[in-house]
Structures are given as C-alpha cells and as structure tokens.
Amino acid sequence: MIEEISIRHLGVIGEARLPLGPGFTALTGETGAGKTMVVTALGLLLGDRADTGAIRSGSGQALVEGHWHVDEHGAVAERVRDAGGDLDGGALILSRSISQEGRSRAVVGGRSTPVGVLNEIGQQLVVVHGQSDQIRLKSATAQREALDRFAGPELASVLGDYQEVFRRWNDAQAELDVLVAERDRRAREAEDLRLAMTEIEAAAPRRGEDVELAERADRLTNIEDLRLAAAQAHELISSESLDEARDALSLLDSARRTIDRVSGHDPELVPIAEAIANAGFVVGELATQLSSYLASLDSDGGRELETVQERRAELAVLMRKYGPSLDEVIDYLDSGSGRLMELDHDTDRIESLRAEVDADRARVMMLADRLSDLRRVAGIRLSERVTGELAALAMGSARITVEVTHREEYTASGRDVVAILLQPHPGAEPRPLGRGASGGELSRVMLALEVVIAATDPVPTFIFDEVDAGVGGASAIEIGRRLARLAQTAQVIVVTHLAQVAAFATNHLRVVKDSDGHVTASSVQQLQGDERIAEMARLLSGLPDSESGLTHARELIETARELVG
To answer: Where is the RecF/RecN/SMC N-terminal domain (predicted)?
Structure first.
C-alpha cells in the first residue's frame, strides 16, 4: 500500500505531498492543474522511462519519493533486500530523480539501484489503468493476459512449464537448423582442417625452432669469417710459429721472468709477479677455448646450411598458411584437433538434437493443449462474472463472451487466440472490443474485469486515470460504487473529473493551481468537510459556491455512503 507520495518540480507541480493510505482515494482538480503529473510521478516510481520534458521549467531536476508499506516477508521485501535496500518495519521508501542532462537515479530502500529494479517491484505492487490501457484492452495479447490472470495459479504453473519447454525446444530447433543447413560447409571445413592437421603433424614443428634455425643459418653463412677471426685471435694469443714469437703468452712469460730476476731486491714486486703468472694462466685458457671453437667449425658447413634453409622454408610455408608465428601454428594444431572432433561428431549431434526436438515438441503440444483447456474453462467463468459486473455498471443488457481459438503456430504463450467479445444487447452480434465498443463501454468493461480478476489475482494497489471517461449519470455512480467495492480489498487511487465517482472516495485530494501571471504552480490539498462539499459542487456545476450545487454535492455524498453500506 502507498502511504504517501512527495513530488518536486515535475510538470506544473512545484511541490506537493499526497497522503494516500488505505481505501479509495479520489484525485480531482481543474483542467491543467496537474492531475496527470501525479500519475506520471507514480509511473516514475514504478520504473517508467524518464522524460526530461516533464521537469518543471527553470528547475535542474525533478524528484519523486514514495512511502510504501509492504509485507516484511513477502516477495517485494525479498527483492528489495536482494538489491541491497533496507526495510524499517515493513516501511519501504522508493525515490526517483531525473535531471535536465537526462540522468536518472533510482533509490530503493536507501540504496541506489538500476531503474529496472523499480519496474520489477512495481509489477508486484501496482496495476495502472489509463485511457491508453483502454486502447490496449482491444489487443488480443492484453485480453489473453487478463484471462490468464483470472485463471489463477494452476494456469500460471502450467504456463511456466510450457514456456520452459518451449524455449528449450526453440533453442534446440535453431541449433538443428543451423547444423543441417551448414552440413556441407562444415564437412568441407572438416576436410580442410584434417589436411592442415596432417601437414602440420608431418612437419612436427617445435616451439622456438624457427629462432634456433635462424641463429644456426646466420652462423653457417658466416663460417669462414668466424674461422679466420678465431684463428687470428688464437695466433695473437698463442702462436704456433717456429719463428721467434711475440704472442701474448710469450710476452707475459718474458715479463714474469724479468720481474722474477729483481723481485728479491723489493718485496713489493712479488705480488706483481704472481699476478703476471695468473694472467698467463687466463690467457692460456683463452687460447685453449679458441682452439676448441676452431675445431668445432665444421668444414662441411655448406651442406648443413642447405639443410637448415630447407627446414626454414618448410616452417615458413606453415607459418604463412596457419601463423603468422610458429607458436600460432602449433596452437592451431592444438585447437584444430578439438574443432575437428566437434565437426566429425555433427552426424551424432544432429541425431541427438532431432530426438530432443521431437520429445520437446510433443511436450509443447501436450502442455499447449492443457493451457487451452484451462483457458476455455476460465473463459466461461470470466464471461459470467464480468457480465454480472456489467449489469451493475448500467450495462444490464450487455453480455461478455470470452472466446478461445487456436492458431497454427506455437508461441511463448501457447497457441491460443483469446478474444473478449461484447454483445451490447440481446439479438446483437457479439463483436470484439476493438470494434464497436465506445470509450465509456471500454471503461466499464476494464473496471469490471479488474473487479472480477482481483478475486483470484489480488494486487495491493490499483490506479485508474480517468477510467470514467465518456461516462456520466447513473453509469458514473455505478463505476464509483464498483471502485469502492474494489477498495475493500485493495488500495484504489482514481484520477477523475466526475463528482459521481469522487463521492465514493474515503480520501479526497484536490490538485490546486495557483498562478501569478507568469508561472503556474500546483500543489495538493486533502479535502474534508465543507472543502470537499465545495469541490464536489465544482465538479457538478463548475460553481463551488452555488447553493444548489452544494446541496446536490451533499446529497451525492450521502447517497454514496448508503450504496456502499
């Protein structure tokens, strides 16, 4: 139940507070005062799309805040907690702000949330009906949804099972269609992949092999230069010439002997002589390493280079086809094996999918038939009860018929086409609501449906925006009476311009328009006593001070009390 709504800077409303509470709340006011903005504010709290054009001129943002009382252990409270919000003894606060820049912010139980959370919560809290919903009631979809709500939990359970199987059936059928349609292409892909795998496996590349071969090729290409440089370095360090050599080893040996001859005269030369001797050992080791390096240079490098270049060419072909790097070629081999296994199992998968599709199709057909049976039975009951309600809404000769027929294809809701037919008087041909029903008749049919459906699918709050459009006189009184009856089990909020409807309200709010000649601002007043009588007189005659209007207003309120009992 909505306890209170606060609105700031929305449309013509500067600032307003709407005390609501249980029972039947009527919202009245002059044309252009902003009654529609109240419905817009409720829509924002329920997750409707934000429109910056609704922000009051000269304001940076509009803000709407709603105070609800909900069951602490119910589905709404659970969803609020899932979203990170808090409840205080069943008290829930929802708020929504929209800025001129187009930013929208939703807060649920003190926690910022996506706007979609408001929509999820709103669907469980409120049903909104406006003139656009009267138009929607003409659609087959809206009529089927109304019948399904009336049918109750048994149909809802079967429909849930059906939709689960239907989605699975559709998904499997779509996959099967793709596999069958692309079977030839996938067969070619498998053959190409098999050839590629054979080619790569035959070459047996190793990770990093291309880098190793490049280094080896560079060495073999420059082997003579390497041999000459190593030989010259070895000659300079340790000459093998029989002539008097002046290589590094000989020079170091001469230096050592020279120092040794005089080191006995100065102890400081001893460590120097030792260092020279050590240097000789190091240079000698270098000479040995150079000799080993020269020995390792294969004299038949040309043949090895040819082999290396052939292998590099072989790897280059693989990298060009499946690379561009050698690692990617090897990765392709690894992933391709799995893909080839998948493609090779297409036939098995097709057969498996066909079995699944056949089984799910049979299940879909069975559940769809069950839905049809439940809808036909519910349609008969709904027809009788709504017809009874219409009799009480000054349409005593009218009759409603709910017709359930089949279409060829199956959809997410089954294969039924639901049509609500209106027979305005005996002998007339029943016609769909979309053809021939006036706005007033649609208003009464919609109200009758909600009164009947509320018995099996209760909703905490109903909001009607000018549900009495196109209605007057005795019909309007009956609409008010039925709204009062609905308010006995649910909160009912009605935007109306008819005194005959407002007379049944237990809470009467008036949207007041003030103007200073430049800016129009609206606020909301809760009416009681003489103020309410004056507003009722204005609704009746346009003259809030008319004595006859005031008398009529009092009489109307008293009549409403007697009718409600």
So the answer is: 2-518
